[in-house]
Amino acid sequence: MPHPALPAAVVFPDFSALTGAPKLASILGALMTVVLILSVLTLVVCAITWAIAGSHGSTHAATRAKTSLWIAVGTAALAGAGATWANFLLHLGTTL
Fold it and tell me: Is residue 61 part of a domain?
């Protein structure tokens, strides 16, 4: 419990001190959009490759396509969760 005579310290990130903060936010948003589009495109291509390779009996190609499909799913999940995680941390920082 703080001493009653001492004022409480308020510490929070000051994004106005950064001159390029809005530009950085737009660059990161565009980069995240590109990553999500490419990961979904990779997901579709890997699913098609897995289906074709599995139907033709190529187990090696089907296994590689299945592994790539899971990597694409993980990449899309991490890219989507990145913005949520950053927003959570920024909100948490203002409440401390």
Answer: yes
Domain containing 81 equals 30-95
Residue 12 Ramachandran class (φ > 0 left, ψ -120 to 50 alpha, else beta): beta
Q: Name residue 86's amino acid.
A: A
The whole-angstrom separation of Cα 79 and Cα 92 is: 20
CA distance 91 to 57: 51
CB 68 within 8 A of CB 91: no
The three-point CA angle 14-16-22 to 5° equals 120
| Residue 25 belongs to some domain of the structure | no
Structure token digits, residue 53: 């390779």
pLDDT tens digits for 26-81? 777 788 888 889 988 999 999 999 999 999 999 999 999 999 999 999 988 888 88
Lookup: tokens for 73: 């799913």
Number of domains in the chain: 1
Q: Name the strand (E) or helix (H) holding 85.
A: helix 59-95
